[in-house]
Every structure is written in C-alpha cells, then in structure tokens.
Amino acid sequence: MFEAVNLQLTAGQLLQIGGKNxxxxxxxxxxLAGLAQPDDGEVFWQNLPLADGDFPQxxxxxxxxxxxxxxxxxLEHLExxxxxxxxxxxxxFQVLATLGLAGLEDIPxxxxxxxxxxxxxxxxxxxxxxxxWILDEPxxxxxxxxxxxxxxxxxxxxxxxxAIILTTHQPLTQHFPAAQLLELAYRW
Amino acid sequence: MFKWLDPxxxxxxxxxxxxxxxxxxxxxxxxTLLLGTVWGLAFTPADYQxxxxxxxxxxxxxxxxxxxxxxxxxxxxxxxxxxxxxxxxQWAVGAIAPIGxxxxxxxxxxxxxxxxxxxxxxxxxxxxLTSELILLFLYLGVIALSGxxxxxxxxxxxxxxxxxxxxxxxxxxHFSVEWWNTLHQGATITKFAKPSIDASMLWPLLISILAFxxxxxxxxCLRLKTAILQNEQHRPWVRQLTASAAKEG
Amino acid sequence: MVMFKAxxxxxxxxxxxxxxxxxxxxxxxxxxxxxxxxxxGAKPNLLAEIAPGIIWIAALLSVLLGAERLFKDxxxxxxxxxxxxxxxxxxxxxxxxxxSSWCSTALPLLLISPLIALLLGLDTAAxxxxxxTLLLGTPLLNLLxxxxxxxxxxxxKGGILLAxxxxxxxxxxxxxxxxxxxxxxxxxDYSGQLAVLSAMLCLALALVPLAVLKALKLNVG
Lengths: 188, 249, 221
Fold this sequence. Notes:
Chain A has a single domain (14-184), classed as Rossmann fold (3-Layer(aba) Sandwich). Helices cover 29% and strands 16% of the residues of chain A.
C-alpha cells in the first residue's frame, strides 16, 4: 500500500501525518502501533523491531474508534483504563473536571454528546505516563476550547520528553518547535 | 528453526514450484486413476459374497482415506501458518479445504450407495459414517469462515486457526462417537471388518489410493497457484508475469 | 489479576445494564424445552427418555445465542484494539469474559434445573445428574462459544456462522452429558461419564483461552 515511507522520531518530537481521505493515514498508524504488519519493511522502537522490544508498554494508542461503551459512565471508563493499562492512580474526578466534564461523571456515556464522548476517550492522555502517543484524528468532534486544551497537553508531553504521532485534517493552531509533517498521497 | 522452509515460503518461488509440479502430478494422477479404476472395475474377479457391488471400494476407500489425509495436511499447513506466520501456508489451507470437502462428500455418497445393497439402507448411524459426516461439517466450517470476512487475510488466518482447533477435536469427536455408537446399537452392522482381501483386488485398490493422493496434490498445486496470484496481484512479479503472458498471447 | 478484576467488574456492570443479554438466552432455553413435549407428545415415559438429550441441546443452543455479544461491543468500539496495541494482560481479559459469560448464561440454567426436572418428569437422581453434568459441561460450552465469537468477530454474518463452526465441536459433550443423565435415570452409575466430562473441561481450560486470544488478535490486526 505504501511506497518509500522512511521516517524517524526522537523524544520531544511530534509527527503529523496528513493526506486526503483514503491516503492510508490510519493504516500507517496501525502499522506504527504494531496492530498491522507491513508487507515489506520494518518498524523499530529504540533500535529494536516492534515485536522484540518493550514497545507495547511504552505506547498509548487511541484509534478513530473511541473505546467508549455507551452504557458505562465516564468514571467507570477511567477506572477500567487505570486498572487495565496500569495507569498510575490519578484522581479521575480531577481529570474529568480538567476536560470540562464536571458533573457528568456518573451519566452513561450514551447520553453525552459526541464531543463529550471524545473528551472522555482522550482522558487517557491525562492518566498515562507512557512516552509514545499514537492518536488517530484526536480533534474529531472537539470544540475550539477542547482543541486548545489538547494542544497544551501535547506541549507538556513533548517537554517531558514524550513523542506524539497523530493524524489530522486540520492544521495545528499551536506552534510545535519540533514538528515533522508527513504528507501521504494515494497513487494508482 | 525452519530456516530451510523460508525460501520455499516466498510466494513467487512457491508459485514456480507449483507450476513445475502440476503437469507431472496431474499426468500421473490421471494415468493411475485410469489404471486403478479400469483394473478394479473390469478385470478383478467379483467378490464371492458381495458380487459386483463391492467394486465401489475402488472409489470409496481412496476418497475416505484422502478426506482425512487432506484434513491432516490442511492442519499442518495451518499450524505452519500460525506459528511461523507464513502467508503461503494460510493460502494452502484455503486451497485444500474445498478439495477435502469434495473427497468427504464422495466418500459419504459412495458409502451410502454401497450401504443400500449391503445393509439395505442408505444411512446408518455407524461410528465411521457419523465421524465422516462430522468431518464434512468441520470442512464446511473452515470454508465458510474463510469466505466470511471483508478482509481476505483475516479470513485466511481465522480459518487456519479453526483448522488447528478442528484437528485437536477430531480424535475426541471420533472417540466419543465410537463410544456412543457401541452404547446405542450392538455391533451388528458396525461389524464391517474388512475380510482379508485377495491380492488380485488389493493391487488395483492400492493404485486407486495412490491415484487419489496424486489427484489431491495436483489440485492443491493448481488451487494454490490461483490463490497466490489472487493475493499477490498487485506485486511487481505478478504484473511482470501477466504482462509477458499478454505479449505472448 | 488487576486486569481480571477490572474486566470482570466492567462486564458485570454491562450485564446489569443490558439485562436482555442474559435474560433472553434463559427464556429461549425455557421455550425450547416447552416446544419438545408439544412437538413429540407429552407421554411421561417418552419425555423421561428424551429429556437428557433435549435439555442438553437446549442448553447448548441458548449458550450459543448469548455468545455473539461477548466481544462484539469491545471490538466495534475499539476497546480490543487498544488492549491489543498496549499488549495488556489479554489472557486475564479473556478469562474474565469467559467467567462472566458462564455466570450470566450457564449459572441461571443450573439454578432453574429443579424446575426443568419437574417439567420433564425427571426423578431426583436424574435431576442430580442434570445438575452435575451442567456444572461440568457448561464451562466447556462457554469456552468453545467464546472461541467461536472470537473467530467470527469481524465476519460479516457472525451470528449464524458462529453456530455452524462451534456446534460440531459440541458433539462429544452432548454425547457424554446426555449419556450420564440417561444412566442416572436408569439408576446406573455415571461417574465414568463425569470423569470424561472433567477431562474434556481440563483440556479445554488449558487450550481454549490461548486460541481465543490468538483469534482476537488476528481479527484486530
């Protein structure tokens, strides 16, 4: 599917993958996250092939599927993630309040709006201490304030030596000093 | 481990090998098939008990044997596919399954046709017959699963896994059916012990068995070739192949 | 262990909020059992003779009915893909799913087994055999159903396909479980059948979760 993709990402860097619909952004992300295997070529994490190293323990992947179960509340989602992904104990209420979801902690997620559900899904970024984030269209359905909030979070993460790979249609409004841009195009 | 398998697992190489073998296997299969059936059907003496109807053995027994042989080879391919992630082995699973299923149907059908004059009924819940029927269900499951996915690769992998699960279960199923059979009915009909077979009948039977095996191998080669082309159609080597074929044609 | 608990609690919350998921298979079980006497005739002798078979066929159909939902939501909503990507203790997740599915689909069958015995005219000894075989056999049903659910996860028509794949694998269980109940109703010893059932359960417990794991990964990848 891809030809001649060659890139390198170091700590503190952000990689933005752009391209038209169907250019293969999500497929590339899935390969980078180790969910799919490339036909040819290899992906390395700290000089080790993905399958050999401790890559999965360093990764926080949020795909274009939200991971939200409609019947569960926001707080229950956070509880599950904390236990399932070994996130260090952080106050769930606090995180949800930061995301502007105060007062909505105990409502089943199916009653929340799409943007609010997206915020719940992104709450993982506030819980995790993992260095590499791979995010597929994180800004979908978010309003301006949430987009700003998320970009602040990105800056903070990059300053702490993390790395981010994300796809997005819209240009980032904030300036990231160490940002790379990879534009994919579909070729017949 | 299995480093020696690696070069053969490359789709391109495997395609060439299959192409090379197919004509030989096919020729041998047709020749032995003709020899075995003509000898078996026309030139062997009739059975003193069963008359001429026993002659169906030359089709029934080989197909029954190879219906199980095909399942074993499919399961081995599936295991290779799962453990060493060999794509060509996944395709081999999909290539063998329908052939095995057809062999199973032939075995069941000829069994029924043989049963009618011998036992007076088309079907009895005999342990072997029941096991063979369940084998058919397992084959159909593998085939149905491989075709059920939008993504062909997922289908191939899932059916490989199912084939391995099936081969673990087959002995258990066979044993339990046998046990159930002895529980439910006496050994009246199941007492279908093969009488010591005369050499004049044995030879054509052995040749038929060989013929069905060659036939299975030839068909597998052919289907595997097709599967490789289908799955690799966008690869440069296939494009080259089709381009040169178009030029010649 | 943390993962097991988290996934288990999550599953129970979901079951508590989607009661149809476990109530419907139970009702299905009862209705199928009701249909047999209506279709075959309600002579007590006949009923007692076919009871083991129909109890077990109804049980395995109802477990299959409840199986499709097992991983479907987590797959659709991307939970599975996140778990696979982060390579979290997936085995604990799979086990939690299977245990909770047993609790929600098979445990109710055990609880209403006295009622079934009454309906089909089984005596106490036969009822005890039904209870024991259900206890040993239903975990096996759930394990294999989970395997089917995982295999057909991203298939187009998962539900019916799941049944086609898994029903042949249920045959040994059906044979031994109904034979045990049969023996019991004749007043014979059936410890042999129970031993075979336990052996099959042990084998399945060791192998099936791994196969489920593999199947989940290949559906996500």
